[in-house]
């Protein structure tokens, strides 16, 4: 497996064609024997060479290294118009510099010596074997130094073997390869002609998003990014791994239809369901699906008896998908190759969202195996899983487990856990590797993934990255300009209604609520108590065993004035949109977390925890790590001493749960699969709590006490 940051030539011989030829192929040359005619025609028709001189191809003449480099570069699809890194050779004529630089950048040649390419020296057949094996991506066994030929040394043995096995060369005789012989122009023509007939690799380019959660405020820049990627590779597929619903006022107001209009405009090819797509039941989801100008894929969601979704569901894999319909999987044709795409949604949806009794979430492993089998029966050996189960999520299903347990999946485009995978993750458990990608959250990034498949449908190379949509230049201007059409649509059709919603009153406070930086990062505050109370209440609706809630002080960004609480104030307090996580922690881990929380006290620390469901005392005069003197947990209305051997369900946000603010003990729990991510955004949880408790009378209650300050 190769992970190349940039594909210079995605597949060999991308820009040349092969055609059968007869004697007419070389009528312009007087020195081309019949065995070279087709090869010479191939080179001349594709403008790889015009021959040695007028009327002469130079078939039996040796070829110099620079001429061989020019012809090979052209055969591979490199052009003089492109820019390549300077290889640093001082003896290459201007006419061949581009080709030598291209081959050096591609790893085909390192020259003869430092700074010297040996441009006008003849290339030997042994050296040519290395160039060809590397250029055409032949499978080379570096340990196989022995060959059928008696004149091949250990240096070139593996490459000569690769040429023989691929059919590029049979040698000069049964026992002689001619490794030290000067390569003839006719022989080189044969090599390039045969190379063009090798089974071509296939490049699949994916543009991917996930967990956008109605964050469309930057959609005009996102459109520019997608357009640029599509211009670079028109055959790219644009896919989404779910959770378009819920997360901002745009969803609260437009129920996904605002997002959908922009998705349709950008030309998405497929989407799978996230758990939040079911937050308002299936009626808004059905409207979302019906109006989509792309199909949905979901192999493990069975809604055949649901009144709203049943008419849209197709329990099949198809190569003729209809927009606004749901399929187990679809087959897309990309550059003449068939690509299978199927979808999966986390089974947690049943308990963390509102799909209703008529929607069944079937076993994701079993349904993935069925989907793969269906594709293989249809002759598809390039398979993409579009999943919303989490990268290494502890909710009972995740992408890493899927890759390990189900053979045949080449790529997993994931969502749900909001992971920022800057580089693709590779699982090589099975017979073939699986590439896993995920693009964080909230339209912050657009993900790209290029994978090269061999003729058997196995991924041989890959390159992926995340493109930051709101990236800025040094002068603080945005790197990507806004698409004017999208910008105007957002500004005129959707934003005015959101501005009205921001002014709406969502609660009332009898007194000012303290969210000042110097307070929430050093001590218990009334606002910290209110936020964690809201978090704990929400977590209990998902897992009734949850008894503790923890909120890092760095996630609270402002105070709230006494009187009416507006939606805009709430969004100012919690601007990050952090989502809910529920951890299974031992008492010892909780105590260690509290020690970390107060390790810098009385100095400000973003890791300082506001808490609900427990109270603890610490002594800031003691050495960090040995400050917490007592911890009590509220279980069933009674505070009892923390049992370090017992396991507790603890709510927090996903930032902290994944080890943010250096909570290493939480990171261990996350990696162990002890963290569930139901995904409800903090400000939504908070406003929901305010709706149930509109007259806020929060206070400091002695949940956190520093005995040294008494």
UniProtKB/TrEMBL annotation:
Highest taxon above the source species: Bacteria
Family statement: Belongs to the 5'-nucleotidase family.
Listed GO CC annotations: extracellular region
Keyword Secreted (UniProt): yes
Pfam family, one: SLH
GO MF, one example: nucleotide binding
Name assigned to this protein: 2',3'-cyclic-nucleotide 2'-phosphodiesterase / 3'-nucleotidase / 5'-nucleotidase
Entry-linked SUPFAM superfamilies: 5'-nucleotidase (syn. UDP-sugar hydrolase), C-terminal domain, Metallo-dependent phosphatases
């Amino acid at each position: 497996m190769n992970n190349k940051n940039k594909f210079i030539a995605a597949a060999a011989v991308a820009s040349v064609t092969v055609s059968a030829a007869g004697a007419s192929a070389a009528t312009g040359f007087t020195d081309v024997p019949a065995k070279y005619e087709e090869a010479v025609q191939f080179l001349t028709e594709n403008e790889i060479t015009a021959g040695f001189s007028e009327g002469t191809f130079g078939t039996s003449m040796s070829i110099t290294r620079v001429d061989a480099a020019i012809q090979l570069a052209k055969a591979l699809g490199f052009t003089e118009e492109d820019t390549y890194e300077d290889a640093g050779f001082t003896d290459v004529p201007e006419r061949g510099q581009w080709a030598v630089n291209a081959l050096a950048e591609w790893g085909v040649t390192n020259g003869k010596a430092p700074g010297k390419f040996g441009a006008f020296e003849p290339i030997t057949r042994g050296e040519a074997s290395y160039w060809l094996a590397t250029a055409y991506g032949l499978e080379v066994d570096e340990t196989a130094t022995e060959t059928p030929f008696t004149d091949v040394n250990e240096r070139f043995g593996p490459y000569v073997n690769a040429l023989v096995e691929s059919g590029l060369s049979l040698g000069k005789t049964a026992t002689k390869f001619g490794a030290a012989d000067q390569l003839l122009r006719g022989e080189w023509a044969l090599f390039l002609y045969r190379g063009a007939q090798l089974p071509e690799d296939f490049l699949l380019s994916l543009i991917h998003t996930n967990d956008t959660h109605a964050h469309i405020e930057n959609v005009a820049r996102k459109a520019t990014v997608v357009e640029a990627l599509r211009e670079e590779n028109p055959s790219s597929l644009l896919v989404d791994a779910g959770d378009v619903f819920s997360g901002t006022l745009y969803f609260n107001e437009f129920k996904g239809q605002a997002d959908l209009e922009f998705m349709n405009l950008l030309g998405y090819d497929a989407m799978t369901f996230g758990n939040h797509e079911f937050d308002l039941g299936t009626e808004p989801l059905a409207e979302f699906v019906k109006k989509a100008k792309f199909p949905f894929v979901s192999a493990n969601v069975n809604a055949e008896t649901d009144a709203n979704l049943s008419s849209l569901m197709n329990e099949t894999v198809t190569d003729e998908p209809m927009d606004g319909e749901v399929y187990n999987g679809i087959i897309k044709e990309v550059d003449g190759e068939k690509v299978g795409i199927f979808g999966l949604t986390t089974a947690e949806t049943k308990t963390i969202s509102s799909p209703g009794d008529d929607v069944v979430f079937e076993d994701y492993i079993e349904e993935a195996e069925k989907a793969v089998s269906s594709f293989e029966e249809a002759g598809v050996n390039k398979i993409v899983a579009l999943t919303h189960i989490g990268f290494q999520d502890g909710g009972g299903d995740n992408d890493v487990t899927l890759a390990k347990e189900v053979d045949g999946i080449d790529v997993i485009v994931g969502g749900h856990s909001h992971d920022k995978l800057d580089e693709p993750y590779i699982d090589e458990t099975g017979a073939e590797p699986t590439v896993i990608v995920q693009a964080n959250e909230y339209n912050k990034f657009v993900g790209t993934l290029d994978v090269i498949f061999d003729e058997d449908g196995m991924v041989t190379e890959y390159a992926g990255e995340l493109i930051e949509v709101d990236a800025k230049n040094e002068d603080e201007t945005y790197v990507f300009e806004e698409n004017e059409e999208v910008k105007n649509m957002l500004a005129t059709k959707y934003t005015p209604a959101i501005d009205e919603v921001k002014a709406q009153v969502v609660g009332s406070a009898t007194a000012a609520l303290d969210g000042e930086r110097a307070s929430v990062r050093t001590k218990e505050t009334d606002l910290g108590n209110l936020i964690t109370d809201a978090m704990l209440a929400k977590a209990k609706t998902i897992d009734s065993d949850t008894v503790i809630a923890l909120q890092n002080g760095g996630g609270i960004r402002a105070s709230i004035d006494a009187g009416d609480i507006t939606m805009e104030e709430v969004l100012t307090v919690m601007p990050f949109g952090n989502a809910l996580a529920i951890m299974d922690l031992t008492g010892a881990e909780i105590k260690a977390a509290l020690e970390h929380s107060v390790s810098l006290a009385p100095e400000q620390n973003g890791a300082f925890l506001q808490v609900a469901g427990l109270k603890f005392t610490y002594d800031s005069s003691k050495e960090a790590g040995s400050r917490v003197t007592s911890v009590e947990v509220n279980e069933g209305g009674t505070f009892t001493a923390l049992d370090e051997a017992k396991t507790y369900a603890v709510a927090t946000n996903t930032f902290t749960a994944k080890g943010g603010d250096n909570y290493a003990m939480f990171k261990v729990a996350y990696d162990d699969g002890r963290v569930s991510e139901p995904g409800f955004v903090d400000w939504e949880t908070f406003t929901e709590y305010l709706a149930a408790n509109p007259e806020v009378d929060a206070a400091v209650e002695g949940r956190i006490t520093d005995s040294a300050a008494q």
